[in-house]
Design a protein that fits this description.
The chain is about 50% helix and about 20% strand. By secondary structure, it is of the alpha/beta class. Among the domains are: about 60-135; about 215-424, TIM Barrel. The strands form 3 sheets. Strands 5-6-8-9-10-11-12-13 form an 8-stranded mixed β-barrel. A two-stranded antiparallel ribbon has the order 1-2. The protein has a two-stranded antiparallel ribbon with strand order 3-4. Strand 3 and strand 4 form a beta hairpin.
Length: about 425
């Protein structure tokens, strides 16, 4: 027989023990299913060991716990805040963009207004300057004609305008004058205030049928010409009938080659005699290429000899006419101002010595020569025969005769001839 059976048989507390065991088994099962506070505390501790990150991850993933819901809400609130901030920032950016555009527009308007004001100021200054120049020198018609696309050439307009600039009353500094020479080359010169100034009104020089006149009742104006052997035989009666009342006749010239040979003009005596007989007032000139005072004296002696041999009493001066050779090599092309002044004085002194006061001498000039070669003292002591082929004389200095073209046409003369005005 076994021991277990023996124990049941002889234990008086067996039923009670079984009941207690049954109760214990039933209580353990209930405790396990109900999770007692001790077990929950232990589970909480275990969960705590897992860390907040795990809890946050779980909450974010499931969205079921209170913490998870809070996280989700915060995320949404944050997103909403960002959206609101972005919206507000966007509005601010739009406002700044609008403000910038407004600033650009205002800046553009301001720049445009400034530009308009600058343009207006420039126009006003130009108008003021133009008015001052026109008032000072009487060139309004020339400038207006050119501006309107009239017949005045650019050279004419510029010449008139620059002459006016020289006549401007602004004494703040040296007066500069731009001028154009016979070869259509531009130059700028400083006007010498010590030289006697031009007294003529440029607006009163008027061209009629290819001939120039000066319409000022204060002066007597005569038409004339200058000639040499190059014109050939001249019908001086026809010249006089055409209204020409004076002539400058070449009596001699020096060649511009290296030798500088001095020649008598072969038509000089005949022209002097017949022009005088036709009733014209006559003067003479010498084309000079003198390099020294002695050569200038030689030219003076030649001129005097030809005049005296003609038997003509001249009415106008003997003109000293030094020139450069523009389109060829010339022996005097490199002459200095000082030498020109010395040569001019030597020529005139020689005539005065040989002919006395009966034969007056003066000078032939143009603006380049007044600019570079003749000095103020020479210009002031002489009457000037001035050459300038523009429509109005450009010189700011005094003159008595104006050679205004080298392409004139005169009855009694074949080919082109130089034409002149005598203003007295």
């Amino acid at each position: 027989m076994n021991s277990f059976s023996s124990h049941r048989q002889f234990c008086p507390f067996f039923p009670a023990a079984m009941l207690f065991l049954l109760l214990c088994l039933t209580g353990c099962t209930g405790l396990s299913a109900g999770s007692s506070p001790a077990q929950k505390s232990s589970a909480a501790a275990a969960s705590s060991d897992a860390g907040p990150a795990s809890m946050t991850a779980a909450a974010t993933e499931t969205g079921e716990t209170a913490d998870g819901k809070t996280a989700a809400a915060k995320t949404e609130e944050a997103a909403g805040g960002k959206t609101a901030a972005a919206t507000e920032t966007g509005e601010t950016a739009d406002s700044k963009t609008a403000a910038a555009k407004t600033g650009e527009t205002a800046g553009a308007k301001t720049a445009a207004a400034a530009k308009t004001e600058e343009t207006a100021a420039t126009a006003a200054a130009t108008a003021e300057e133009t008015t001052a120049r026109e008032t000072a020198s009487g060139i309004a018609s020339t400038v207006t004609t050119a501006a309107a696309g009239g017949t005045a050439s650019a050279a004419e307009t510029a010449a008139a305008a620059t002459t006016a600039a020289a006549a401007s009353p602004d004494d703040s500094g040296p007066r500069l004058l731009k001028y154009i020479d016979a070869w259509q080359e531009w130059h700028t010169m400083e006007v010498d205030p010590s030289v006697d100034s031009c007294a003529y009104d440029p607006d009163l020089f008027i061209e009629e049928d290819g001939r120039m006149t000066y319409a000022d009742d204060r002066y007597e104006v005569l038409r004339g010409l200058d000639v040499s052997e190059h014109q050939g035989y001249i019908d001086w009666g026809a010249v006089a009938e055409a209204g020409y009342s004076f002539a400058f006749i070449r009596v001699g010239y020096r060649g511009y080659g290296a030798d500088g040979i001095l020649y008598e003009d072969r038509a000089a005596v005949d022209n002097l005699q017949r022009a005088k007989a036709a009733g014209l007032k006559v003067g003479t000139y010498v084309f000079s290429q003198a390099l020294s005072e002695e050569e200038a004296r030689e030219e003076a002696r030649l001129a005097l000899r030809v005049i005296q041999s003609s038997g003509v009493e001249t009415d106008l001066p003997l003109m000293y006419d030094p020139e450069l050779i523009k389109d060829d090599w010339g022996r005097a092309n490199e002459i200095s101002r000082d030498q020109v002044v010395l040569n001019t004085a030597a020529f005139q002194e020689e005539i005065a010595k040989e002919a006395g006061p009966d034969l007056k001498t003066d000078i032939y000039s143009n603006l380049p020569w007044e600019h570079h070669y003749f000095d103020a003292e020479t210009m002031n002591r002489n009457e000037i025969w001035y050459a300038d082929y523009e429509k109005k004389p450009q010189t700011p200095y005094h003159f008595t005769w104006w050679q205004y073209t080298n392409e004139g046409s005169v009855p009694g003369i074949e080919g082109r001839v130089d034409l002149n005005l005598w203003i007295r």
